[in-house]
Amino acid sequence: MSPVMASTGPVFAGIDIGGTSIKWMIVDEAGAIATQGNERTDREAVAPQVGRIGARLAGEFPGLVGFGLICPGLVDEEKGAVIYAANLELRGVELARAVEDATGVPAALMHDGRAAGLAEGLLGAGRGASSFLMMPIGTGISVALMLGGSLWSGATFSAGEVGHAPVFPGGESCRCGSRGCLEVYASAKGIARRYEQATGEDTGAKAIEKAVGTDPVATEVWGTAVQALALSLTHMTLTVDVERIIIGGGLSHAGDNLLAPLRAQFASMLTFRDAPEIVRAALGGAGGRWGAAILAARVGGSSCYERWQP
Ligand SMILES: [Zn+2]
To answer: Mean pLDDT per 10-residue run, the chain (310 residues)?
Structure first.
């Protein structure tokens, strides 16, 4: 067994609980990653599994003073409980309590998308903005809403589920039971599905993006996605008037192939006011885990994360 470097100060554990895997990361006060790892999610027994991972980490790192847990679904962040998470088959589970009971170390729980927004706000593309919305575009679409320096989770902990707001009424059907949802047209999965529907070709959103301008179907599918996103961002901008919009998730890797047409359409829909800036997320896929580590530092009573530079 390799010796673990003796830590002189406290360390913090971020645990990202997803439908396929659970990923963790231990960060010290300087923001250096002491260790990270992952294992397959045991959907039959998520809470005991997370408790076991927590106990193992607490045993390996005696300086561990806080756990930050993140997961998808409906999360009661005050109680540290999962109200409902379809991909994890969890309903009414006090996940933070499970880890505290297994380790004796304080734990906090946050929605994974909001945690990514928290990390972008403190350490990434949201720095310096007191209000922004962060939209990760991947398999699905949601937004994290930072207003006046704090994240808004909503009256029922379901703020930001814009992926299921219809943008084309009566449009193509969505897995949520509605039609014309943003996600159907503009998620990476939706773009690939619409292209396959028209051509019979099963190719990813990345290949479709590269074919814009040469392949007419790719051009139409990509253009419709951009239009759907611009509509959604227009509604949100006119509602909450944020300073900045941050686009994350897999689709953000398209860079200006996505952002340039999106900025143009968005600006053209906002007829009587200027458009807020649209920028790309800085932390990529690691945003959620950094958010979990920040949460761990906070619950451990430290504000050292203000100096972190992931
Ligand atoms: Zn939907």
So the answer is: 58 94 96 96 94 97 97 93 88 96 97 94 96 93 94 93 94 94 96 97 96 98 98 97 96 96 98 97 92 98 94
Look at the chain and count its residues: 310
pLDDT for 140 equals 87
Report the separation in Å between the CA atom of 162 and the middle of ligand 1, taken as the mean of its atom positions. Answer: 9
Ligand 1 centroid to residue 165 C-alpha, Å: 7
Q: In this structure, are strands 33-40 and 21-28 parallel, antiparallel, or unpaired?
A: antiparallel
> What is the token pair recorded at 293?
């580590």
Task: Dump strand ranges (E) for the chain.
Answer: 11-17, 21-28, 33-40, 64-71, 74-76, 81-85, 90-93, 107-111, 132-136, 144-147, 150-151, 244-248, 277-280
From the CA of 135, how far away is ligand 1's center (Å)? Answer: 16
Q: Is residue 36 within 8 Å of residue 52, measured between CB atoms?
A: no
Q: Measured at the alpha carbon of residue 19, what is the angle toward residues 15 and 25, in degrees to the nearest 5?
A: 20
Tell me what pLDDT residue 3 has: 45
Residue 306 CA to ligand 1 center (angstroms) comes to 37
| CA of residue 113 to ligand 1 center, whole Å | 17
Separation of CA 55 and ligand 1 centre (Å): 38
Quote the pLDDT of residue 285.
83
> 26 alpha carbon to ligand 1 midpoint, in Å?
36
Tokens representing residue 262 in the block? 């999106």
Q: Coil, helix or strand for 65?
A: strand
Cα 177 to middle of ligand 1, angstroms: 6
Return the structure tokens found at 113. Answer: 């998308």
Rounded to the nearest angstrom, the distance between the alpha carbon of 230 and the centre of ligand 1 is 17
